[in-house]
Specification:
By secondary structure, the protein is an alpha/beta fold. The chain has two domains: 4-181, Rossmann fold (3-Layer(aba) Sandwich), CATH 3.40.50.720; 189-326, N-(1-d-carboxylethyl)-l-norvaline Dehydrogenase, domain 2 (Orthogonal Bundle), CATH 1.10.1040. Helices cover 50% and strands 12% of the residues. It has helices spanning 12-23, 35-44, 66-70, 85-92, 120-127, 142-145, 160-170, 183-205, 210-230, 235-238, 241-252, 257-266, 271-278, 283-297, 303-313, 318-326; strands spanning 4-8, 27-31, 61-63, 75-78, 104-107, 132-137, 151-157, 175-180. It has an eight-stranded mixed beta sheet with strand order 3-2-1-4-5-6-7-8, sandwiched between helices. Strand 7 (151-157), helix 7 and strand 8 form a beta-alpha-beta unit. The chain starts with a strand and ends in a 16-residue tail after the last helix.
Length: 342
């Protein structure tokens, strides 16, 4: 099955997915905002700065013309930073022609819109009402997908047929795709794990060990699931690829820009200095404040996310934040468990 696919965004993830999709036999067009970037992409056959060593086939088309990137496509893959999704959809809007269930707008960006507190699929539908939207997420560093290393992800969609369609297009012998109807749960896990990964990186930067990392991952997924359940998501989603799976890989890997930024903050740099040094969009910084506001809206306790906000936006010393987490009131690990004997 060969599909016509437009990839909107030419960073590391966009190029990795272009590599995967062309190897699967699809016709791929990659869009970048600037013509200068397009010329570099053509010369290097990929993004030599963000994803070195990944060479795309000659068949891939590169363009800064949005109409060329999206018109007549079967699938439009969004891989721009979450903070620009609304603006990008506005640029796409005049050029999209709806034809039944096509095109499918597949979001691969992870975040929560700062002002509206919308997940990305809701932002897309706000700009493109009636669009067929799906989400791809899971433990999937671009650096490894671009090398053809075995990777497993999950695709969420409102319609099962749409999820199956994306599954068939993306599935390969090195890229396994599961499907799920819980789009909101998948997107929340994708966005909030970046915030916890910042915390894990800060702990690394402070010189803490594996015990601390394990505690942050375990309690972090508890916070994510607690908020997700309050918002109507399925608990099993947070036990899966877009929940604990993505959280583990983002907290543990040096491929993770959120962890790398956290390490720098733990070593004493400001969030602004850390993001500049990482030289990539650190989504967790943008999602942290929205995540805390959601917790306030739904009256959910999220101590790790709260402390990260204080470090990022209130100049709190990271070591003091860890101490405050450790010295919180004594609690049961699970509030649903009861003793049979006093």
């Amino acid at each position: 099955m060969s599909e016509s696919i437009g990839i909107i965004g030419a960073g590391s993830w966009g190029i990795a997915l272009a590599y995967l999709l062309t190897n699967n036999g699809n016709d791929v067009t990659v869009w970048s905002r600037s013509q200068e970037s397009v010329e570099k992409l053509k010369i290097n056959k990929g993004n030599a700065e963000k994803l070195p060593g990944v060479i795309l086939p000659d068949s891939v088309i590169y363009t800064s013309n949005m109409e060329e990137a999206v018109k007549g496509k079967d699938i439009i893959v969004l891989v721009t930073p979450s903070s620009t999704i609304r603006q990008t959809c506005e640029l796409m809007k005049p050029h999209i022609e709806y034809n039944g269930d096509r095109p499918v707008i597949l979001n691969c960006s992870k975040g929560i819109e700062k002002d509206s507190l919308m997940i990305m699929s809701d932002v897309i539908l706000d700009v493109l009402p009636g669009a067929e939207v799906a989400i791809l997420s899971g433990p999937s560093h671009a650096e490894e997908v671009g090398k053809g290393l075995p990777t497993t992800i999950v695709v969420g969609a409102f319609k099962k047929d749409t999820a199956r369609y994306i599954q068939n297009v993306f599935m390969s012998d090195v890229f396994r795709v599961y499907i799920s109807p819980d789009m909101q749960g998948i997107e929340l896990g994708a966005a909030l794990k970046n915030v916890v990964a910042l915390a894990a990186g800060i702990a690394d930067g402070l010189g803490y060990g594996d015990n601390t990392k394990a505690a942050l991952i375990t309690r972090g997924i508890t916070e994510i699931a607690r908020l997700g359940m309050a918002m109507g998501c399925d608990f099993e989603t947070f036990c899966g690829l877009s929940g604990i799976g993505d959280l583990v890989v983002t907290c543990a890997s040096m491929h993770s820009r959120n962890r790398r930024a956290g390490i720098l903050i733990g070593q004493g740099k400001t969030p602004e200095e850390a993001m500049k040094e990482v030289n990539m969009v650190v989504e967790g910084v943008y999602s942290a404040k929205a995540a805390y506001e959601l917790s306030q809206k739904y009256d959910v306790e999220v101590p790790i996310i709260e402390q990260i906000n204080q470090v990022l936006f209130e100049n709190k010393n990271p070591r003091d934040a860890v101490n405050d987490l450790m010295l919180r009131d004594k609690k049961l690990e699970s509030s649903s468990q009861q003793w049979n004997r006093d």
